Amino acid sequence: MSLMIFRRVERGAPKAALGLFAAMSLALALIALPAPEALGRDAPGSFADLAAKLSPAVVNISTKQAVDEPPGAEALPDGPFNDLFRDFFDRNRPRGPVQSLGSGFVISADGFVVTNNHVIKDADEVTVNFPDGASFQADVIGSDDKTDLALLKIDAGKPLPFVPWGDSNESRVGDWVLAIGNPFGLGGSVSAGIISARNRDIRAGPYDDFIQTDAAINRGNSGGPLFNLAGQVIGVNTAIISPSGGSIGIGFAVPSALARNVIAQLREFGETRRGWLGVRIQEVTPDIAETLDLEAASGALVASVTPDGPAEGANIQPGDVILRFDGRDVSEMRDLPRMVAETPVGKTVRVVVWRKGKSVTVKVKLGRLENQDTLAAAAPTGDEGDPGGSSQGAEVPGAGMALAALTAEIRARFSIADDVVGVVVTSVDPRGPAAAKGIAAGDVILEIGQDPVSDPAVIAQRIVEAREQGRNSVLLLVQSGPDLRFVPLPVGG
């Protein structure tokens, strides 16, 4: 802008005025520019010193897995094509063990090494290779497929270089990061970038909370460290998004805030020991928030409670919205499983729930999540829709479904257990609101507006009342087979 002023004055203005305006323009420009240190406060002139310091503790992981060879032609019966089959099997049978490569990093002088679970999964032999050429056979101390982490142990006979954990919670989008690893088996390779995003959910597991970075991460980088400029590990490089298999600047690392706790459990117990709440949850959508008089669509809606589980013992009920867990806000549904998993087994925590228009605080003593249990599973959303069947029932105006009471005949027709109390959906208009929310013939409506219901007329009446009150939807508790979920059924218009 100041340059444009300078050019306009230059045409026909006296030299004195020209000099005055030039000086003013320069002063304005200097005022407008931020101080040099503000532009790149943490930007290093080079990463060389940091890379030289950290690289000795970053290792390559190689594995071998024996393959059972399929039976060859010698297992075939004699026949005119025996020679042809023998040649085919000989040319296509595996040759030697399957090998794979990955990365890892040493976290203690006595030889504990962190890597990804998928790097060492099903391996019969794991070798840790150091940049100086030293190699050691490794024992797998433990692994966790839910976070894709594994802990190895080597005996080097001497103290090893290692790197410290950092706090990923202190990292911000835009911070510089350094990735060191073994891309494509090339050996120690360094790439730099920034944190592109935090808290990414890439549907890799129940506790997704990835750091996204544009530092180049390729095949073979799996299990390697992501460093901050203090030389601390803030992430374990785990996955990339790429149509070609190579880096396009979208890589993901398990944050140290999650990884450090998992690795500590593997080191102490050889397995993970996660807290267990015993609920099935679903997302709080704006429609659901409106039906529950919640100010914001946040928290985790309890769809069902595991019998005899910790939540049931603390009187957490279906329909409750968990807003806070152990002093932390539950901003999204997917936050809760991670919070519970990170909490020690047996700890008693305060849980704040939203129940029928007000906050209620309960105390829960967490159990231990076993492999066959579900920490806080997402209830089925039912968004796929279902055209339903042709069974007859009373049509609910504006809902696109017909309902009937649970008689013995209806129970037999839809295979509904005798202890289920509610109203059955006998048919669904494929173009109506109910179908759009995944309600199908044979589903049972147990509650409307968090009140138990067994009469189809009551549901029709409550829908009419909600429409007259200007509400956009009513909240139904629906049972589909063994699964429960809350459904905000649109009623407007």
TrEMBL record:
Keywords: Hydrolase, Periplasm, Protease, Repeat, Serine protease, Signal, Stress response
Domain (PDZ) ranges: 266-357, 390-482
Cross-referenced SMART domains: PDZ
Record-linked InterPro entries: PDZ, PDZ_sf, Pept_S1C_Do, Peptidase_S1_PA, Peptidase_S1C
Primary residence: periplasm
EC main group: hydrolase
Full protein name: Probable periplasmic serine endoprotease DegP-like
Species annotation: Paralimibaculum aggregatum
Compartments where located: Periplasm
Positions of the UniProt region annotated as Disordered: 376-396
Domain of life: Bacteria
EC assignment: 3.4.21.107
